[in-house]
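Before our next group meeting I need something from you. Please put the record directly below this note.
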Amino acid sequence: MTAPIALLANPSAADGRSLKCLDIVRATLEERGAEYRMASPSGRDAARQVAREAAERGETVAAVGGDGTIGLIAGALRDTPGRLAIIPAGRGNDFARVLGIPTEPAAAALVALDGVEQTVDVGNVDGETFVCIASLGFDSDANRIANEAKLVKGNLVYLYAALRALIGWKHASFRVVVDGEVHEVRGWSVAVANSKAYGGGMYIAPQAELDDGELDVVMGAESSKLTFLKDLPKVFKGTHASLSYVQTLRGKKVELSADRPFDIYADGDPIGSLPATVSISPRSLKVLVPAAA
Protein backbone atom coordinates (compact mmCIF):
# COMPACT_ATOMS: atom_id res chain seq x y z
CA MET A 1 0.00 0.00 0.00
CA THR A 2 1.34 3.42 -0.99
CA ALA A 3 2.09 5.77 1.91
CA PRO A 4 0.05 8.99 2.13
CA ILE A 5 1.75 12.00 0.54
CA ALA A 6 2.44 15.31 2.30
CA LEU A 7 2.91 17.95 -0.41
CA LEU A 8 5.16 20.72 0.88
CA ALA A 9 5.19 23.63 -1.55
CA ASN A 10 7.49 26.62 -1.54
CA PRO A 11 5.32 29.33 -3.13
CA SER A 12 8.35 31.50 -4.00
CA ALA A 13 10.33 28.82 -5.86
CA ALA A 14 11.16 29.87 -9.44
CA ASP A 15 8.74 32.82 -9.28
CA GLY A 16 5.82 30.67 -8.17
CA ARG A 17 6.40 27.68 -10.45
CA SER A 18 5.74 25.32 -7.54
CA LEU A 19 2.17 26.58 -7.24
CA LYS A 20 1.66 26.07 -10.97
CA CYS A 21 2.93 22.50 -10.63
CA LEU A 22 0.58 21.67 -7.79
CA ASP A 23 -2.57 21.41 -9.91
CA ILE A 24 -0.88 18.85 -12.16
CA VAL A 25 0.53 16.92 -9.21
CA ARG A 26 -2.79 16.84 -7.40
CA ALA A 27 -4.63 15.67 -10.53
CA THR A 28 -2.08 12.87 -10.96
CA LEU A 29 -2.40 11.75 -7.34
CA GLU A 30 -6.20 11.86 -7.47
CA GLU A 31 -6.25 9.85 -10.68
CA ARG A 32 -4.30 7.15 -8.85
CA GLY A 33 -6.58 7.39 -5.82
CA ALA A 34 -3.63 8.37 -3.63
CA GLU A 35 -4.13 9.93 -0.23
CA TYR A 36 -2.45 13.30 0.12
CA ARG A 37 -2.58 16.62 1.91
CA MET A 38 -1.02 20.00 1.19
CA ALA A 39 1.05 22.40 3.27
CA SER A 40 2.75 25.71 2.46
CA PRO A 41 4.62 26.49 5.66
CA SER A 42 5.91 30.02 6.11
CA GLY A 43 9.59 30.14 6.96
CA ARG A 44 12.44 27.65 7.26
CA ASP A 45 11.71 26.50 10.80
CA ALA A 46 8.02 25.94 10.03
CA ALA A 47 8.91 23.90 6.92
CA ARG A 48 11.25 21.68 8.94
CA GLN A 49 8.59 21.16 11.61
CA VAL A 50 5.88 20.26 9.09
CA ALA A 51 8.23 17.80 7.36
CA ARG A 52 9.21 16.12 10.65
CA GLU A 53 5.60 15.76 11.75
CA ALA A 54 4.59 14.32 8.37
CA ALA A 55 7.40 11.76 8.53
CA GLU A 56 6.39 10.78 12.06
CA ARG A 57 2.88 10.04 10.73
CA GLY A 58 4.39 7.73 8.12
CA GLU A 59 3.73 10.07 5.21
CA THR A 60 6.05 10.48 2.24
CA VAL A 61 7.21 14.10 2.24
CA ALA A 62 7.04 15.46 -1.32
CA ALA A 63 8.97 18.71 -1.64
CA VAL A 64 7.56 20.88 -4.41
CA GLY A 65 10.24 23.46 -5.14
CA GLY A 66 13.87 23.93 -6.02
CA ASP A 67 17.14 22.67 -4.59
CA GLY A 68 16.96 25.14 -1.70
CA THR A 69 13.64 23.70 -0.56
CA ILE A 70 14.98 20.16 -0.88
CA GLY A 71 18.13 20.98 1.10
CA LEU A 72 16.02 22.47 3.86
CA ILE A 73 13.66 19.50 4.08
CA ALA A 74 16.65 17.14 3.99
CA GLY A 75 17.70 18.65 7.31
CA ALA A 76 14.37 17.69 8.84
CA LEU A 77 14.32 14.13 7.49
CA ARG A 78 18.00 13.34 7.97
CA ASP A 79 18.62 10.33 10.22
CA THR A 80 14.90 9.51 10.40
CA PRO A 81 12.80 6.81 8.69
CA GLY A 82 11.11 9.61 6.70
CA ARG A 83 11.18 9.41 2.91
CA LEU A 84 11.62 12.39 0.61
CA ALA A 85 10.01 12.66 -2.81
CA ILE A 86 10.97 15.49 -5.16
CA ILE A 87 8.70 17.49 -7.46
CA PRO A 88 11.22 19.74 -9.27
CA ALA A 89 9.87 23.29 -9.42
CA GLY A 90 12.95 25.48 -9.12
CA ARG A 91 15.24 27.12 -11.64
CA GLY A 92 18.20 24.74 -11.43
CA ASN A 93 16.70 21.45 -10.18
CA ASP A 94 20.18 19.96 -10.02
CA PHE A 95 19.49 17.40 -7.29
CA ALA A 96 16.63 15.96 -9.34
CA ARG A 97 18.84 16.04 -12.45
CA VAL A 98 21.57 13.96 -10.83
CA LEU A 99 19.04 11.47 -9.40
CA GLY A 100 17.22 11.09 -12.72
CA ILE A 101 13.92 12.44 -11.40
CA PRO A 102 11.70 13.81 -14.20
CA THR A 103 11.11 17.54 -14.37
CA GLU A 104 7.54 17.10 -15.67
CA PRO A 105 5.24 17.38 -12.61
CA ALA A 106 2.98 14.42 -13.41
CA ALA A 107 5.94 12.09 -14.00
CA ALA A 108 7.61 13.30 -10.79
CA ALA A 109 4.38 12.67 -8.87
CA LEU A 110 4.39 9.08 -10.10
CA VAL A 111 7.92 8.66 -8.71
CA ALA A 112 6.55 9.81 -5.34
CA LEU A 113 4.07 6.92 -5.56
CA ASP A 114 6.06 4.19 -7.30
CA GLY A 115 9.70 5.12 -6.80
CA VAL A 116 12.35 3.13 -4.97
CA GLU A 117 14.39 4.28 -2.01
CA GLN A 118 17.93 5.52 -2.46
CA THR A 119 19.89 6.50 0.64
CA VAL A 120 22.13 9.54 0.12
CA ASP A 121 24.50 11.78 2.03
CA VAL A 122 23.57 15.23 3.32
CA GLY A 123 26.00 18.14 3.61
CA ASN A 124 26.18 20.62 6.48
CA VAL A 125 27.52 24.17 6.70
CA ASP A 126 27.75 24.96 10.41
CA GLY A 127 24.49 23.09 11.01
CA GLU A 128 22.57 24.25 7.91
CA THR A 129 21.94 21.36 5.55
CA PHE A 130 22.35 21.13 1.78
CA VAL A 131 22.11 18.37 -0.80
CA CYS A 132 24.06 19.67 -3.81
CA ILE A 133 27.07 21.96 -3.51
CA ALA A 134 28.23 24.67 -1.09
CA SER A 135 30.49 27.26 -2.71
CA LEU A 136 32.03 30.67 -2.20
CA GLY A 137 34.17 33.29 -3.90
CA PHE A 138 33.19 34.07 -7.48
CA ASP A 139 30.23 31.76 -6.92
CA SER A 140 29.02 33.99 -4.07
CA ASP A 141 28.80 36.98 -6.42
CA ALA A 142 27.19 34.95 -9.21
CA ASN A 143 24.57 33.40 -6.91
CA ARG A 144 23.65 36.79 -5.47
CA ILE A 145 23.19 38.22 -8.96
CA ALA A 146 21.11 35.19 -10.02
CA ASN A 147 18.82 35.55 -7.01
CA GLU A 148 18.33 39.27 -7.67
CA ALA A 149 17.61 38.82 -11.40
CA LYS A 150 13.97 39.36 -12.30
CA LEU A 151 13.90 39.44 -16.09
CA VAL A 152 16.03 36.39 -16.89
CA LYS A 153 14.11 33.12 -16.46
CA GLY A 154 15.02 29.46 -16.08
CA ASN A 155 18.52 28.02 -16.28
CA LEU A 156 19.78 30.97 -18.33
CA VAL A 157 19.84 33.05 -15.17
CA TYR A 158 22.95 31.22 -13.98
CA LEU A 159 24.89 31.90 -17.18
CA TYR A 160 23.74 35.51 -17.09
CA ALA A 161 24.85 35.81 -13.47
CA ALA A 162 28.28 34.32 -14.17
CA LEU A 163 28.91 36.80 -16.98
CA ARG A 164 27.74 39.73 -14.84
CA ALA A 165 29.89 38.64 -11.89
CA LEU A 166 32.92 38.29 -14.16
CA ILE A 167 32.96 42.01 -14.94
CA GLY A 168 33.82 43.17 -11.43
CA TRP A 169 35.60 40.09 -10.08
CA LYS A 170 38.99 40.36 -8.34
CA HIS A 171 40.77 37.19 -7.29
CA ALA A 172 40.67 36.19 -3.61
CA SER A 173 42.94 34.09 -1.39
CA PHE A 174 41.31 31.04 0.19
CA ARG A 175 42.44 28.78 3.02
CA VAL A 176 40.93 25.31 2.71
CA VAL A 177 41.59 22.71 5.40
CA VAL A 178 40.50 19.23 4.32
CA ASP A 179 40.55 16.63 7.13
CA GLY A 180 43.28 18.65 8.84
CA GLU A 181 45.47 19.21 5.74
CA VAL A 182 45.92 22.88 4.83
CA HIS A 183 45.65 24.11 1.23
CA GLU A 184 46.15 27.74 0.18
CA VAL A 185 44.82 28.91 -3.16
CA ARG A 186 44.39 32.29 -4.80
CA GLY A 187 41.85 32.52 -7.54
CA TRP A 188 38.19 32.13 -8.35
CA SER A 189 36.27 29.96 -5.95
CA VAL A 190 35.99 26.93 -3.72
CA ALA A 191 33.12 24.45 -4.15
CA VAL A 192 32.42 21.72 -1.59
CA ALA A 193 30.31 19.13 -3.32
CA ASN A 194 27.96 16.44 -2.08
CA SER A 195 26.54 16.04 -5.60
CA LYS A 196 27.90 16.55 -9.11
CA ALA A 197 25.96 19.56 -10.37
CA TYR A 198 24.79 23.05 -9.51
CA GLY A 199 23.77 26.21 -11.34
CA GLY A 200 21.28 24.55 -13.68
CA GLY A 201 23.46 21.78 -15.08
CA MET A 202 27.04 22.84 -14.35
CA TYR A 203 28.90 19.63 -13.47
CA ILE A 204 31.47 21.31 -11.27
CA ALA A 205 32.29 18.06 -9.40
CA PRO A 206 31.85 15.29 -11.99
CA GLN A 207 33.39 12.61 -9.75
CA ALA A 208 31.15 13.32 -6.74
CA GLU A 209 28.80 10.57 -5.59
CA LEU A 210 25.75 11.12 -3.42
CA ASP A 211 26.31 8.07 -1.24
CA ASP A 212 30.09 7.79 -0.77
CA GLY A 213 30.30 9.54 2.62
CA GLU A 214 32.78 12.12 1.34
CA LEU A 215 32.86 15.68 0.03
CA ASP A 216 34.57 16.62 -3.23
CA VAL A 217 36.39 19.95 -2.95
CA VAL A 218 36.95 21.80 -6.24
CA MET A 219 39.26 24.83 -6.16
CA GLY A 220 39.62 27.21 -9.09
CA ALA A 221 43.03 28.89 -8.96
CA GLU A 222 44.12 32.10 -10.66
CA SER A 223 43.63 32.57 -14.40
CA SER A 224 42.74 35.43 -16.71
CA LYS A 225 39.13 36.43 -17.24
CA LEU A 226 39.50 35.56 -20.92
CA THR A 227 40.67 32.05 -20.03
CA PHE A 228 37.79 31.67 -17.58
CA LEU A 229 35.30 32.75 -20.24
CA LYS A 230 36.79 30.38 -22.80
CA ASP A 231 36.68 27.45 -20.38
CA LEU A 232 33.23 28.15 -18.90
CA PRO A 233 31.34 25.87 -21.36
CA LYS A 234 33.47 22.93 -20.18
CA VAL A 235 31.78 23.06 -16.77
CA PHE A 236 28.49 21.95 -18.34
CA LYS A 237 30.18 18.69 -19.41
CA GLY A 238 32.48 18.31 -16.41
CA THR A 239 35.57 18.40 -18.64
CA HIS A 240 36.98 21.45 -16.82
CA ALA A 241 38.33 19.13 -14.10
CA SER A 242 41.44 18.44 -16.19
CA LEU A 243 42.38 22.13 -16.51
CA SER A 244 45.72 23.11 -14.97
CA TYR A 245 44.19 25.70 -12.64
CA VAL A 246 41.50 23.38 -11.25
CA GLN A 247 42.35 21.21 -8.23
CA THR A 248 40.12 18.56 -6.66
CA LEU A 249 40.41 17.10 -3.15
CA ARG A 250 38.25 14.74 -1.12
CA GLY A 251 37.43 14.52 2.58
CA LYS A 252 34.82 14.45 5.29
CA LYS A 253 35.44 17.82 6.97
CA VAL A 254 36.34 21.06 5.21
CA GLU A 255 37.22 24.29 7.02
CA LEU A 256 36.96 27.44 4.92
CA SER A 257 38.29 30.99 5.25
CA ALA A 258 39.40 33.76 2.88
CA ASP A 259 41.12 37.14 2.78
CA ARG A 260 37.79 38.96 2.48
CA PRO A 261 34.18 38.24 3.52
CA PHE A 262 32.06 35.90 1.44
CA ASP A 263 28.61 34.43 1.88
CA ILE A 264 28.44 30.68 1.30
CA TYR A 265 25.71 29.61 -1.09
CA ALA A 266 24.34 26.08 -1.28
CA ASP A 267 21.42 24.77 -3.35
CA GLY A 268 20.96 28.32 -4.65
CA ASP A 269 20.53 30.00 -1.25
CA PRO A 270 22.88 31.80 1.16
CA ILE A 271 23.31 29.47 4.13
CA GLY A 272 26.44 30.69 5.89
CA SER A 273 29.43 33.02 5.93
CA LEU A 274 33.15 32.73 6.50
CA PRO A 275 34.84 31.28 8.42
CA ALA A 276 32.83 28.08 8.15
CA THR A 277 33.05 24.32 8.50
CA VAL A 278 31.46 21.95 6.01
CA SER A 279 30.85 18.32 6.98
CA ILE A 280 28.99 15.29 5.69
CA SER A 281 26.24 13.13 7.18
CA PRO A 282 26.80 9.81 5.39
CA ARG A 283 23.80 7.91 3.97
CA SER A 284 21.39 9.79 6.20
CA LEU A 285 18.49 10.65 3.84
CA LYS A 286 16.02 8.36 2.07
CA VAL A 287 15.01 9.72 -1.35
CA LEU A 288 12.53 8.20 -3.80
CA VAL A 289 13.96 7.82 -7.30
CA PRO A 290 12.61 6.19 -10.49
CA ALA A 291 12.65 2.42 -10.45
CA ALA A 292 15.18 0.89 -12.81
CA ALA A 293 13.75 0.01 -16.21
Notes: The mean pLDDT is 93. DSSP finds eight helices and 15 strands in the chain. The CA atoms of residues 121 and 139 lie 23 Å apart. The two ends are 21 Å apart (CA to CA).
